Amino acid sequence: MMRKLVSAAIGTALAVFAGISFHHSRHLREPVVPGPAVSRVATLGDYFAPLKGTINDANIYILEGKEPGGTVLLLGGTHPEEPAGRLAAWIFAENAELRQGRILLVLSANRSGTTATRIGGAYPADFTIPTAWGGQTFRMGDRWSNPLDQWPDPEVYLHYPSRQQLAYVDIRNLNRCFPGRPDGLLTERTCYAICELIRREKVDIEIDFHEAELQYPVISTIVAHERGADLAAAASMFISSLEGFAIGVENSPKALRGLSHREIGDATGAISLLLEAPEPFLDATRGRTDRRLLLTGRDPFVVRAGRRGLLFEKIDEKGWPIDVRVGRHTSTVLQVLEIWSGDHPDRAVVVAGVPRYAEVVEKGTGAFLKDPKSVDPGRLSFE
Amino acid sequence: MNTIVTVLYYVLTAYIAVLIVWNFLKRKSWQEELLYVIVLIPFVLRLLRLK
């Protein structure tokens, strides 16, 4: 009997230890200091009522310029395990000054996915970006919605409305469920809400931030719907010659369904673009999967894979630091907006105050995160 | 319909957790007891909606 009590006590201790960590990961609050251009904060539930009050009733930061113009939607956190996208959107939310047009910002497009890490992946539960005022901690997140919010997965996932068969687990993948289904599961309803937002706000351009493993061929690129091909090509040329890094262009394939660059472009009036930056943390050949790897992008095993020609992007001992990845996203958005605004003066979106690639790399991402203690608590939002 | 399926999965999880506890109580070897305790943890965490 004593032996059984000891075994049960060991099990209870392990469960409590794990449970505290998972509870902390799911409920960590991430403060946002809305910048000067943020006129109000709406939520996805305002555009699709059934999502109201759910975990995916994500905040939408609405940035408005003094002059009317076009509207751009930036989506961070479609895949929360790709944090450079969320951080780039964060920088826009806290720093952007708008002279013309509007920017709609979603920092946690799949908020459920930010509350769990990959089962069996040994991911860190969170990570901290160093700042002059100490540091800001973010939830790590996963590629898929948290099973606590959508469970079980079906044996077969048929994408709606194409009925294309996709991997069963991707019914929890926001970037495999577009354009969404109003009476579907949580992830499908979230996609539907995002499309409703785009339709009702007459969004001109939607940009979805991502990161990719170096073993994945779609990397360091802009994936563009055919209506955005010219815009993406021009941005690629300007970025490669002016910004200090190279980025390619890929056409959105018509045969692969559910992705934002395909479905949003087909289902709404918006031009849809998707940005991919390199994230060695996601590579299957990586070593220890910890916060250091997430932030430095340095891994000797991935470097070795590169030397053997197994990767689609270069890597050396310098790795792919988070600041490089975030800076790629901010500069790409700024170039897209500048080209779009030059070609469409009546639908222009003119923005200032957002750092470009070189500045983010030089000063670090943390230099552009605002101290939540420096403002009236009533002004704060939380993700 | 989806909610009903989800509730049924929680019922299944609870049922399997009870079976694991039952087996734990029947074991004579310390190693097997510990094995059942470890197997039980994810079921408990799911029932408590922690993971």
What does this structure look like?
Chain A is an alpha/beta fold. Chain A has a single domain, classed as Aminopeptidase (3-Layer(aba) Sandwich), CATH 3.40.630. In chain A, the strands form four sheets. In chain A, strands 2, 3, 4, 5, 10, 11, 12, 13 and 14 form a nine-stranded mixed sheet that branches. In chain A, helix 4 crosses helix 8. The mean pLDDT of chain A is 97. Chain B has 51 residues and is an all-alpha fold. Chain B has one domain. Chain B has two helices and no strands. Chain B is elongated, with a radius of gyration of 13 Å. Classes of the chains: A alpha/beta (383), B mainly alpha (51).
Distance between the termini of chain A: 48 Å
The first-level CATH class of chain A is given as: Alpha Beta
Low-confidence stretches of chain B: none
Elements of chain A, N to C (H/E): HEEEEHEEEEEHEEHEHEHHHEHE
- Fraction of residues in H or I helices of chain B: over 70%
**Largest sheet composition of chain A:** 9 strands, mixed
Low-confidence spans of chain A: none
Cα separation of the termini of chain B: 23 Å
Number of helices of chain B: 2
Mean pLDDT of chain B: 96
Structural class of chain A: alpha/beta
User: How many β-strand stretches of chain A?
Assistant: 15
Shape call of chain A: globular
Q: Which percent range describes the beta-strand content of chain A? A: 15-25%
Structural class of chain B: mainly alpha
The whole-angstrom Rg of chain A is: 21 Å
Please report the two chains with the greatest interface, counting residues with C-beta closer than 8 angstroms to the partner's C-beta: A-B, 18 and 20 residues
Largest sheet of chain B: none
Please indicate the count of domains of chain B.
1
What CATH calls the topology of chain A is: Aminopeptidase
- State mean pLDDT of chain A (0 to 100 scale): 97
